[in-house]
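Q: Convert this sequence to structure tokens.
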Amino acid sequence: MELDTPIESSTICWNQDIDAVVIATPMQCHVPQAIAALQAGKHVMSEVTAGVTMDELWWLIENVEQSGKVYMMAENYCYMPDNQLILNMVKKGMLGEVYYGEGEYLHNIQSLVTYNYGMQQSGKTSWRKYWQLGKRGVFYPTHSIGPVMQWFEGDRIQSISCFGSGRHCDLSLRQDDTSIAMCQLESGKLARIRLDTASPRPHQMAYYTIQGTEGVVEASRFSGQDAMVWMKGMDESNDKAAWRPLKDFSEHLPERYLNATDEQMNAGHAGGDFFIVEDFVNAVQKGTPPAIDVYQACEWTAVGLLSELSITNKNRTMDMPNFRKNIPYEEQIIKL
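A:
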């Protein structure tokens, strides 16, 4: 969880005994603090999103490449057991060729417009009023698009279009009640994400679907209920197709999840918070590639940044930059 009190990077003393830092401050602080850490020779694990402007993403990539240090985005939804199970099933070909995915983040955060210290509202406007509820489009996309893009391994987002419902519930906020982003992948496949942070409803922050040629997985619409799966061969025919609980296929989880200790599983997000930190530490100590590197972090973050341009320009389709190593300056642009 991110802190609600900004920490200026200029106030940080970079102790020489510190090898790595975890950045869990408000979104607008992530890139300035990441750059300060990288330039001080520290490895960085950063909370989501990677940045709040497209320029920040270019600066971040540049500093990661120049520093030679590990940068990893802490997108822990990718590490939830169900999402890891789906990833392994996709890798094993159990769903055939996957071609459509969905992710949704439905979380009313109106109570976070002002800071809440203890039991009393301070009345002071929080950073979320501006950097989240003050933005249009899918400003917080990585929880939704991250797991889906891991299931489309090796693919990249080529363009996005964003659509909004308008404001109906809280006219003091700039954010639409619901925003939908359609992501066309380079392969021609499709991913849809939905963000809703103002509608009066219970939370559902981890809804996903992945459709393949041989099967489909669909999360429950209701928090706490099992995700379901169907694959060819489970029934006599498509006409008699019936869902089965995803947990029935838990033997396909990564081994470390199957052998996880109670302490690991209780670290948060059903063990995901432990294993994402483990992967970061291994990247630092053993030189293994970071599970979510700076290029993925920037692409997933850019879904939100480009969605704002799309939704404020009559749902215009926006091209996604090809985030990669040593990207030339002439490609560090937004194409209209």
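The first strand starts at residue 20 and ends at 23.
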